[in-house]
Amino acid sequence: MAPLMERERVDFLVLGGGVAGLTFALQAVKHGSVLVLTKRQRWEGSTQYAQGGVASVLGPDDDFDLHIQDTLVAGAGLCKRDAVEVTVREGPDRIRWLLSLGLDLDREGDRLHLTREGGHSRRRIAHAKDATGREVERALLAACAAAGIRIVEDQIAIDLVTSGKLGLGGPNRALGAYVLDRATGAIATVSAAVTVLATGGAGKVYLYTPNPDVATGDGIAMAYRAGAAVANMEFFQFHPTCLYHPQAKSYLISEACRGEGGILRNGAGEAFMSRYDPRRELAPRDVVARSIDAEMKRRGDDCAFLDMTHLPKSFLIEHFPNIYATCREFGIDLAVQPIPVVPAAHYLCGGVVTDLLGRTTIPHLYAIGEVSCTGLHGANRLASNSLLEGLVFGWRAAAAAAEELGATSGEAAAVPGWNPGDALAPDEGVVVAHNWDEVRRLMWNYVGIVRTEKRLARAHGRLEMLRAEIRDYYWQYHVTPDLVELRNLADVAMLIVACARQRKESRGLHYVLDTPRADDRWLRDTVLTRGDLE
Description:
The chain folds into three domains: 7-234 and 349-412, 3-Layer(bba) Sandwich (FAD/NAD(P)-binding domain); 242-344, Alpha-Beta Complex (Flavocytochrome C3, Chain A, domain 1), CATH 3.90.700.10; 429-518, Methane Monooxygenase Hydroxylase, Chain G, domain 1 (Up-down Bundle), CATH 1.20.58. Helices cover 36% and strands 17% of the residues. The chain is built from 15 helices and 20 strands. A hairpin with a 5-residue loop joins strand 10 and strand 11. Helix 4 (81-100) crosses helix 12 (386-403) and helix 10 (313-319) packs across helix 11. The model has no long low-confidence stretch (mean pLDDT 93).
């Protein structure tokens, strides 16, 4: 596809190329011009690395009410029921749509093969072996190519353009974005009638994460700076089982491994989950992650172990070929030895506040997928509901955006080009690298699986200083991709800490030793808007 010009004008600007962004693009292109921008290669994002599958009511023994109830239970009282119902009830049609695009899912005869994961009362996880996200991404990209959708790679959005920032009067509304080309350093001004944040999550805010390098919370940070409401950032899900190996870069061991009978053991070989929850390995992720953390601290172990040696080797190779092969590369044979595992930061349940159509609190700005806070996940995401959310809300947002197309058509000429002012060439790259490392380490140490008020206060104080340093550096020097991501990472870290300090209870993924029990007075969202961090 052609590179970006200095000034571009489109009907729909989509930032991000995962399941949500591509679903939106495929529906929106029926109504106007679409431009999809990705930070690196078009396939590089969290969708590509989703292993387990996509949850939906597809089996003969399942029904909508069961999936709804499982989601509500996992969400620990904070799910919005209307968001849950919309997602669950529209899910099967969206999966059938994907199948019509050529998605290749595992089958048993003429039916989809369904597996089970923690928190689910039925087998309802449709999958493509243990690399479902890769197959979803392949099918969507092929469909986008067939539809002639323009996708430009290696572009990183610096900030949203809004009427408020430009002083145009009237309600603050989104007009597009300023975009940095990774290779050339050129900055384009992209004007759009509708701007869509599909930028994914923020796992890189923590030191240990299975998220790809692009997951730096860009959409959330940009939306907050633009004035959009952000909510429930304290609920960061730590995946219970990431491979613990000095050469492995936080490789994920799928939830489906426990769903198919994997047993968690401590360093002494004891199965310990029954001490923490009657559902044992099939408890929701927040429970399992905290249980592993507690068991490691109780014994002083460096990791726990996921034991699948009681399952036939042929079964393991057939159902988990990628996990089996990757573990073998690190000298671990699933069939004869347990897998060393530790929890790692995996999924952000909060994000940019939206309604049931993906609309944010800023007109003409949408947020879909992990960047959003739709109310589906509440205080803890039910396994494999994330690909489903991207499909459902990408589709719904496209229908809503098509209706408002043209509402900002007369404002395109009013958007000025990027003005670097008196910015200088960067002179101290080590400053960016050091601050990047410090943000991630303090988040891991102070704002992890188990928190205290004292640790949160320390994190808040240090982040205030770091954000001031980063802000000064940002305005003094020309922007670079690393600086853009660092700025976003620091803003997202502060949003997580600020929400965590607001919530005076423990619920779902937010566990504080000072207030270890849930309190019904906190059955509400923690919402922040621009200025709340200052």
